[in-house]
Amino acid sequence: MESGLNFVDLILKASVLVQLVMLALVGMSIASWAIIFQRRSIISNAMIDAKRFEQKFWSGMDLSKLYNEVTARVGNPEGLEALFVSGFKEFARHKKNSTHSTGLVIEGTHRSMRVALSREVEKLESSLSFLATVGSISPYVGLFGTVWGIMNAFIALGEVKQATLQMVAPGIAEALIATAMGLFAAIPAVMAYNKFAKNVEKLETQYINFMEEFANILHRQAASSAEVKQHVSA
Fold it and tell me: Where exactly are the transmembrane stretches of this chain (predicted)?
């Protein structure tokens, strides 16, 4: 064991190209872990906020009061609150124009909420493509370093008259470290991407369901207002 291979020594004695490959893999791993912690916090908060807002929305609270409460806060609304504010604001704007039919009001409201939905999903999916990229290319980058290191080891082996395993082992070991580092960078990135993508999909479904239910509520309100106006005019 005294003559065993030291991990740090293998990295330091590796060829320049293999060291660059290792450095790139370390950089990708650090960046992916930073994104993992960031996305986990953002997506978890989005799921909690969505559940909290839905409870308040379905509690029977007046929509105008809820709108004023959300818009009175500092900062832009996010998640379901963004969809609600976008839809209610557009609904109120169209409702002031008495010439607009119920269908046009709901169509405009629905279109506004779809735009807000697209923006919110885009925020949630931010940086997930980087995790997917790291997960897919890191093993190949590590494999490239491994192939290069083994190639150099065998080239050096061919220059000596009597080859032994002790002579070729360090070169092969340092080359295999690149593959190990590639897997170390790829596995967490792939696992995190799959989990986050699934959670974002759940949130998107929740947002769409809320959008449709909210649109139905606004449609009923618009229809009731239209009937009242017809009775008054009659």
Answer: 16-37, 128-151, 171-193
Q: At what angle do helices 16-57 and 128-158 cross, to 10 degrees?
A: 160
Give the whole-angstrom CA distance, residue 158 versus residue 182: 28
Distance CA 52, CA 192 (A): 25
pLDDT, tens digit, 9 for 90 and up, residues 55-86: 999 988 888 898 899 888 878 889 899 999 99
The answer to whether 127 touches 192, Cβ cutoff 8 Å, is: no
Give the C-alpha separation, 179 to 21, whole Å.
10
Question: What whole-number distance in Å separates Cα of residue 48 and Cα of residue 69?
Answer: 18
The Cα-based distances of 46 to 42, 135, 136 in angstroms read 6, 25, 27
Residues 175-231: pLDDT tens digits? 788 888 999 999 999 999 999 999 999 999 999 999 999 988 888 877 766 554 555
Tell the residue number behind the tokens 């046009």, with chain if given: 104
164 burial class (0-12, 13-18, 19+ CB within 10 angstroms)? exposed
> pTM for the complete prediction?
0.81
Look up residue 227 and give its two tokens. 């009937």
Helix-strand-coil split of the chain, %, nearest 5: 85, 0, 15
Strand runs (DSSP E) across 94-142, as ranges?
none
Q: Is 130 in contact with 35 (CB distance < 8 Å)?
A: yes
